[in-house]
Design brief:
Order of helices and strands: EEEEHEEEEEEEEEEEEHHHHHHEHEEH
CATH class of one domain: Alpha Beta
CATH topology of one domain: Ribosomal Protein S8, Chain: A, domain 1
Radius of gyration: 64 Å
Helix content: 10-25%
Largest sheet: 3 strands, antiparallel
Strand content: 5-15%
CATH superfamily of one domain: R3H-like domain
Number of helices: 9
Length: 698
Amino acid sequence: GKVHNPEWNRNEIPHSCGELCGKKRQCLDCPHLCNILCHPGPCPSCPAFVTKTCECGQTSHSVRCGQSTKIHCSNVCGNTLNCGKHSCTQVCHAGKCSPCQLTAQQVCYCGSNFREVLCGTEEEFSDGFGNFSCQNICGKKLNCGRHNCTQVCHPQPCQLCPRLPQVVYRCPCGQTPLSKLLELGCVERKICTDPIPSCGKTCGKPLSCGSYEFVHTCESLCHEGDCKPCSHTSNIYCRCGFKKKEVPCALLRNKAAITFMCDKRCNKKRSCGRHKCNEVCCVDTEHKCSLVCGRKLNCGLHRCEEPCHRGSCQTCWQTSFDELTCYCGESVIYPPVPCGTQPPECKKTCTRPHDCDHPVYHSCHSEEKCPPCTYLTQKWCMGKHELRSNIPCHLTDISCGLRCNQMLKCGMHKCKRICHKGECLIDEECKQPCIIPRLYCNHPCMAPCHPSSPCPTTSCCAKVDLQCECGRRKETMICSEASNTYQRIAAISIATKLTDLQLGDSVEISRLITKKEMKQARLQCDEECLALQRNRRLAEALEIDDNSDPFNVRSSGPKYSDLLKEDARKDLKFVSDIEKEMRMLVEAVNKGKHTKKSHCYPPMNRDHRRIIHELAQVYGIESVSYDNEPKRNVVITAVKGKSICPSNTLTSVLDKEMQSRPPPPIPHYKQTDKSSANSGLSKPLKEEPIIDYFDVQD
């Protein structure tokens, strides 16, 4: 390190200046500098010889300076030990001598107790007589020669007698100086045994009982010696400080005897963070958990045996010394194998036995069950309806999605369930409606299936379409109600045909009612039907074309019921919105490519749904209600060619009725023959009486 960038010389060491090194060696106690030429690396050990003494200092030897080993002789050390009394008996050694191992007997300060300790222990506390305090009362005679020392064992000397006249300047309670009492006539004390004069006041010294807020004091008169027990009570607390108890102060002199424990259980978590302390009147601060952890280790086979702790358990310490192989034995993990190690991964094809003969595509695995076979095959569905293709081999229960259609046990119905597994009805009976036609109306029975019993006698609930004779009135009724109506008509017809027969004669009813009468319309034509028939006959008599519409029948617009008009007056905006939506729907379906178009209304109450249904009939729109209350709604469907937009909407009709009176009714003309139609137009015609056959009682 003396020359920067030394010149190169082929006779010298590379990067060397050729001068003496002169650096201080690494050995700390070597005073010599390195005496070889400039060299790389650390300096070699010092080759000089020096004289060194042994560890005990009794002998000396000549050794190399760089030698780091300590020199030991075979003589006894002989150095003075820590006690200052004895010498070291060990052979020459390094470091300080061990403490003196001899025992010595020591006496306490008061001289009543002895102890044995190692020589030289606590010698600095000696007072020339004793070496330690025995924590007992000293008991030595004081300088007065009459009283004993009441202090705890202490070094010499003892204090002065506390009752000497030179020491006592006040009364026993300390409130009054003795000089003032002497002025009042008290006898002057000469020696320590003379009584100390009392001032006669209340003592007032603070007692050990009470609390910081309320300190109890002695209530006796000024006295010598200890104060009497307190007459009050004090509150003491349990160990944990949760509850307190009131006890007489006289018992507080021995506080350890009156400590108590409350019944409160500690709710704090233990050090593990899993369990609660649950100790009664707990005073612990750490709350260490003494239970065993017991959680499963990472191997999944063994449990943690350490005390319950926070965080994750340590890895399982158990190890196997057997080779761990895959199922086929191609891949091996050599011991030691930590517990919980999974078998090695193997790239070979699985060699386990399989349920099918299809080729295996999965690798060797350690799981007991092989993956499902995914080879595509052909399998029949569960109901044997069709042979399905491209079905994975592991799938067994395949449904084709068609109806089962297998004959049930009743022999009358077929299963309506989607292709399924097993029997159609195991513990159940067929509950499909009976399809046997009824005797009178030929409608199906519709009662729950009863294969072994005749059909019950119940009213038919099937709906039938009825119309009047002219075909204008159409109505859907329940079959049983329609049959009652037909029976009333048939009874009237029979009664009219039996008027000419004698009473008491038997008549066959089947001959009186013809097949045409049995198939006749079951609705009676009303006045409007009769008016239309008379107008039609009158038009034929006058040779008027039907398309001319002379009586303004077609242009009169749709007929709205009085109830619908009344509801529209109550909620005109709702009806206007419904009609606007229906007109837009009809126009869209008539102009578009589709034959049908639907619109779904939001859920609404029953009255609003009824308004929609009635307006849908006027517009020729199909309307159906779906869902249950309170979310029942209406869906309307317009059909091309069937749905129409009336010329007069309900709102416009109501506006016209409010602005003007309704138009006069169309005159009705009596039916006449074609020959006399022209001659009798101006004469008043007598109307025929109309018989309402539906009002006749059975």
